[in-house]
Predict the 3D structure of the following.
Amino acid sequence: AQRVTQPEKLLSVFKGAPVELKCNYSYSGSPELFWYVQYSRQRLQLLLRHISRESIKGFTADLNKGETSFHLKKPFAQEEDSAMYYCARPFSGGYNKLIFGAGTRLAVHP
Amino acid sequence: NAGVTQTPKFRVLKTGQSMTLLCAQDMNHEYMYWYRQDPGMGLRLIHYSVGEGTTAKGEVPDGYNVSRLKKQNFLLGLESAAPSQTSVYFCASSYEEGPKPQHFGDGTRLSIL
């Protein structure tokens, strides 16, 4: 079965500390992977995608096919990074349908 | 530019009642989706549509029906609401060339008593 696993429900760090939100996916060729973020009282929005290889708001994510992981990293967390983060990948069969992980809540304390 | 708009934002129903959630997008997207968000389970796909007049089942379709009579609108119906359908419902849309990111609405918080 296709799965996206985010093992941590909550990640609590202090401002300025490094952050790593874990995401593992079930193997299926070369998947497209996404990180979505939901800030308090805002809609879910795309943070970054694997294929773009970009850094958004200081976050990066590297696809590791050997470990089937797509962990989200930021070297120095800011309070405004506090949010719910979801890792996602498309279902097989197309149509851009997404499978989401359970999500990790990141809390950055002053 | 509103993007994806969901109505209503909140609703409380009694068991057995019916209701329809409306999703409208103004980005001319071909694909539209309905998800439910439950604590500890992330978002799960209920139904989706790949174009006007088409619908298909997702991961958790039971108890829901959908319709896409116009390209910009995607309706989610609960014929006989059950407490297990208490959730936050999200609509999303995307372009058809994939894989493409999805654009989400603000969500509808639905409580069924």
